[in-house]
Amino acid sequence: MATRSVNGAFDTFVDRLTPTAAQRTAGAIHRASIRNALESRLNVSTFYETGSFSHGTGVRGYSDIDALVSLKDSKPTSSYTALNWVKDALEERFPSTPVQIRRPAVVVRFAGGYETWEVIPAFMTSRGGKDQYVYDIPAPAAGSSWIDSAPKEHLAYVNECNRHAKTGAAKDLARLIKAWKYYRNVPISSFYLEMRCAQHVANIDTYIHVYDVCLVLEKLARHQLAAMTDPRGATGYVSACSSDANRTDTLSKLDRAATRARNALDAYKEERFQDCFYYLDKLFDGRFPSRSY
Questions:
Q1: Can you name the residues that pair with 70 across neighbouring β-strands?
Q2: pTM metric for this prediction
Q3: Which one of 3.20.20.300, 3.30.460.10, 3.40.190.10, 2.60.120.230 gives the CATH number of domain 6-283?
């Protein structure tokens, strides 16, 4: 029976978390039909994919395909109006497919949810710096309000940070921290985690999975999920949670996660590798690869 090293197990885990080629291909199948459905009912300016799946930080089985549809019409007072415009267009084109509003998007679940699209209505603004595209999109919390979004700026930031310490470091770290979020049902923004992981990697010289998973979780706990200033200066602040209740729940789970990650790192440094695997498995809800295989 062979044994894995800790970092070898992390590499195996990251491979397992990465969406398969079949899942990526499935996403392409409905791209054109979704765009056509929107263009048949709405005055569309641009339509493109955003979010974890297109950023290369998605988690297999959990990350949906996000798309932004920029509309030429005047922005309505209520963001629910725009969400219903998109919902009506998609329901007309896909009458047998579940379509529902889940702020800030309209969710379309193909094949029983195997392939899920989240379509976000957006309206171009005059905010942002030179060559920055800043949109108004529905706020994630309940209500009719709008928030800023600059998806192309944020993708550029993640890509820049990803090249900083080690190829794939920012994206690998984001995928790992998102896996904790999904496996432990933590009500925190995936976008916030992605930005925090990219920011962390931008400020280190060497990336090692077991160290940096611990360090970023401890940093999140130490800062108490403080809102993050947009590193590209396009949208103001990036919030961690959509409500106070979600923030309280997240902080409780984050403290536990940071403790487990620290226990794993201490065991790793002391060469107590079986203990290290034990705490990593606890951190990721029993999904971390076993030491023996």
A1: 46, 122
A2: 0.90
A3: 3.30.460.10
